[in-house]
Amino acid sequence: MSQGQHRGGVHHRVSCPRCDVDKVFMGTRKFHEGRRWGLLGDLGELFVNKETFDVYACPVCGSVEFFVDGIGEHLRPQ
Question: Which of 9, 23, 33, 77 could anchor a disulfide with 49, C-beta 3.0 to 4.6 Å?
Fold first, then answer.
C-alpha cells in the first residue's frame, strides 16, 4: 500500500490494526474548537483555538487516526 507523505516530505507508515494494511495520509487539517462567533465572523476566529492534525485513513475499513502536527513525529514508523 502507499505511504503517507507529510508536508515536510517525511514518509510515515501508519498501519490499520484491523486490516493489517498501511493507512493513507489524507493531509494536515485544522479543527475549530468551540462554536462560531456569528456576527463577528472572521474577526471572532482570532480568539478561537484551532488545532492542526495529520490525518491517516484505512483504504479498506475507513478507520481514521489523528496525530497532532509537529509532536512525536520522530516516534512514528518511517
Answer: 33
**Identity at 29, one-letter amino acid code:** R
List pLDDT tens digits, range 6-41.
445 565 788 999 999 999 999 988 877 666 555 655
Dist CA 67 CA 54 (whole Å): 5
Q: 3-state class of 23 per DSSP?
A: coil
Determine the Cα–Cα distance for residues 10 and 72; give it in Å rounded to an integer: 13
Cβ-in-10-Å burial (0-12, 13-18, 19+) of 41 comes to exposed
Helix, coil or strand: residue 33: coil
